[in-house]
């Protein structure tokens, strides 16, 4: 009987199955200059170890709580892949994580990313990580490591998905949330840079599938191509929110992501109170009207999927509003009073919206 087995050393290889160790090592080398830009003094060592080390300076705190958040970018990645532009999507990833952290009052300390791809292209991975590093610089946190995974057969060669986990710290008696919110508080909205990183399944369905628009087509309302508008990175509010906390008596923040303004703000409104908002206070950016008109999307549906131009909300006392708005203006963040917190009376909703947006 003939032995048809391959002799040792002449058979299948890991690279033959679609996974390249050499490409992974090359990607790590390309990442190092980007991660070094995000370094904080508390970081111990560099990337490349089995775990990342961060020295928490306990002497600075009375009763520190660690806050953690995990999120991803979602199907906005499909736009980046179609445009072959990969150096901004990492900013979106950081924003989704750190602005959830700061909503509790926590200062973002460090972040770890996870990149899964069908075929590891070191240059593309480095471009993604450069954006993650840019986001970490904007948020004041360190990029201490992560994981790049090659998934041949599970993902197409050019496909990738991103996720990250961030850790922050907040004093136990300074945690923000619904227990601090009072009747008479003002709801202050901070302008978004556009769609941010939510609702892209609807965006792609309406603009690319139904309207059959081209990503490289120029759009007069935007002054740039459709793809460039859709890839506009999220605004990162973390440092702005921390600055407001130092100078004003912020009671709560709400990061406006999936579910829109009403659903996210409702998470910080306690029982017995309602945030009464007026749509006439602001005009959504042109991209929202563009999506609504091309897909004949009802207002309620738009407000469920998108931030409608408000990316972060602060709830604070009336006497601090002027100071807060002046601070945000100085930091180049547009802000507007959206409404007030009231006793709910016979209303069951934690958030109500009245009026119609101007020019929408």
TrEMBL record:
Domain of life: Bacteria
Principal cellular location given in the protein's record: cytoplasm
Subcellular location: Cytoplasm
UniProt domain PurM-like N-terminal: residue ranges: 66-170
Keywords associated with the record: ATP-binding, Cytoplasm, Ligase, Nucleotide-binding, Purine biosynthesis
PurM-like C-terminal domain span: 182-346
Record pathway: Purine metabolism; IMP biosynthesis via de novo pathway; 5-amino-1-(5-phospho-D-ribosyl)imidazole from N(2)-formyl-N(1)-(5-phospho-D-ribosyl)glycinamide: step 2/2
Family matches, as Pfam families: AIRS (PF00586), AIRS_C (PF02769)
InterPro entries: PurM-like_C_dom (IPR010918), PurM-like_C_sf (IPR036676), PurM-like_N (IPR016188), PurM-like_N_sf (IPR036921), PurM_cligase (IPR004733)
GO-annotated molecular function: ATP binding; phosphoribosylamine-glycine ligase activity; phosphoribosylformylglycinamidine cyclo-ligase activity
Reactions this protein catalyses: 2-formamido-N(1)-(5-O-phospho-beta-D-ribosyl)acetamidine + ATP = 5-amino-1-(5-phospho-beta-D-ribosyl)imidazole + ADP + phosphate + H(+)
EC number, UniProt record: 6.3.3.1
NCBIfam families assigned: purM
PANTHER family membership: TRIFUNCTIONAL PURINE BIOSYNTHETIC PROTEIN ADENOSINE-3, TRIFUNCTIONAL PURINE BIOSYNTHETIC PROTEIN ADENOSINE-3-RELATED
Family assignment from sequence similarity: Belongs to the AIR synthase family.
Name by which UniProt lists this protein: Phosphoribosylformylglycinamidine cyclo-ligase
Record gene name: purM
């Amino acid at each position: 009987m003939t032995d048809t087995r391959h002799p040792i050393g002449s058979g299948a290889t890991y690279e033959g199955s679609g996974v390249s160790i050499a490409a992974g090592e090359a990607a790590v080398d390309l990442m190092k200059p980007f991660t070094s830009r995000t370094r904080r003094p508390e970081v111990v060592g560099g990337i490349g170890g089995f775990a990342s080390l961060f020295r928490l300076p306990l002497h600075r705190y009375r009763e520190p709580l660690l806050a953690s958040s995990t999120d991803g970018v979602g199907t906005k990645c499909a736009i980046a892949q179609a445009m072959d532009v990969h150096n901004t999507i990492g900013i979106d990833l950081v924003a989704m994580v750190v602005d959830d952290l700061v909503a509790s009052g926590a200062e973002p300390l460090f972040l770890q990313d996870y990149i899964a791809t069908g075929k590891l292209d070191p240059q593309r991975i480095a471009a993604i990580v450069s954006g993650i590093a840019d986001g970490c610089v904007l948020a004041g946190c360190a990029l201490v490591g992560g994981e790049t995974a090659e998934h041949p057969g599970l993902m197409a060669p050019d496909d990738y998905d991103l996720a990250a986990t961030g850790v922050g710290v907040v004093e136990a008696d300074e945690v923000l949330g619904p227990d601090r919110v009072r009747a008479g508080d003002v709801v202050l909205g901070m302008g978004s840079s556009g769609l941010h990183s939510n609702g892209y399944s609807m965006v792609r369905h309406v603009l690319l599938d139904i309207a059959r628009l081209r990503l490289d087509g120029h759009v007069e309302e935007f002054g740039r191509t459709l793809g460039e508008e859709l890839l506009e990175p999220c605004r990162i509010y973390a440092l702005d929110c921390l600055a407001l906390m130092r100078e004003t008596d912020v009671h709560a923040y709400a990061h406006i992501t999936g579910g829109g303004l009403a659903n996210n703000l409702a998470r910080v409104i306690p029982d017995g109170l309602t945030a009464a908002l007026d749509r006439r206070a602001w005009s959504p950016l042109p991209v929202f009207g563009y999506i609504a008109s091309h897909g004949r999307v009802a207002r309620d549906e738009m407000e469920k999927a998108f931030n409608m131009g408000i990316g972060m909300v602060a709830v604070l006392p009336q006497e601090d509003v002027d100071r807060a708005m002046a601070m945000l203006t100085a930091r180049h963040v547009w802000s507007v009073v959206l409404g007030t917190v009231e006793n709910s009376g016979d209303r069951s909703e934690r958030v109500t919206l009245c009026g119609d947006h101007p020019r929408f």
